[in-house]
Structure formats: C-alpha cells, structure tokens
C-alpha cells in the first residue's frame, strides 16, 4: 500500500438484512445514503489513525474495488473513513471514535 491508502474487506454488505425488529429487508430494496462497516486488511506508511484489524465506517459510494487472489477488497483513502470501531474484547475504549 502506498501513501495514505487503506485496504479493507467489507463485511457481507450484499444480500438480505434484518431490521432491529427482525423484519427481513431484501437486497433489492433501495435505501438512502447508508454507511458500511469493513475491516482493515492493509495500510500505507502515511496512515496515522487506523491499524490492521480495526473496524472502520466508510461511504460505499466513495470506493474503488480491487480483486486480490480471488477475494474482493475496497481501496480507500484514510480521509474517506468516517469512524473507527473498538474491538470486541477491547475494554479500554468507549466504542467509536471520530
């Protein structure tokens, strides 16, 4: 990775989803602007705020897709990330930070 680029793996954004009440929402339903979560796989030397393994929130419309070894990844700039989520077992943080 070069400069401020971040390579992320999306978390199954395509397909059906469930609402908080358990209602199944088909993949064909058009939803307004919605951000997506992904996991950082690699980062460039000038990336300062995220590390490999972090969960990040990004806008799916501002992305470049790339296929490596048969798996699809998303290439983003660090400035295109909206938030970083704390890990599951990380009790030293409050959750999200911007």
Keywords:
seven-stranded antiparallel β-sheet; globular
How is the largest sheet built, in terms of strand order?
6-7-1-4-5-8-9
The span between the termini is 23 Å
Helical content band: under 10%
Radius of gyration: 15 Å
- The structural class is mainly beta
**What do the pLDDT scores average to?**
76
Q: Which stretches are low in confidence, meaning pLDDT under 50 for 5 or more residues running?
A: none
Principal-axis shape equals globular
Oligomeric assembly? single chain
Strand fraction: 35-45%
The number of distinct helices, counting runs of at least 4 residues, comes to 0
Count of distinct strands = 9
Main pleated-sheet profile: 7 strands, antiparallel
SSE order, as H and E? EEEEEEEEE
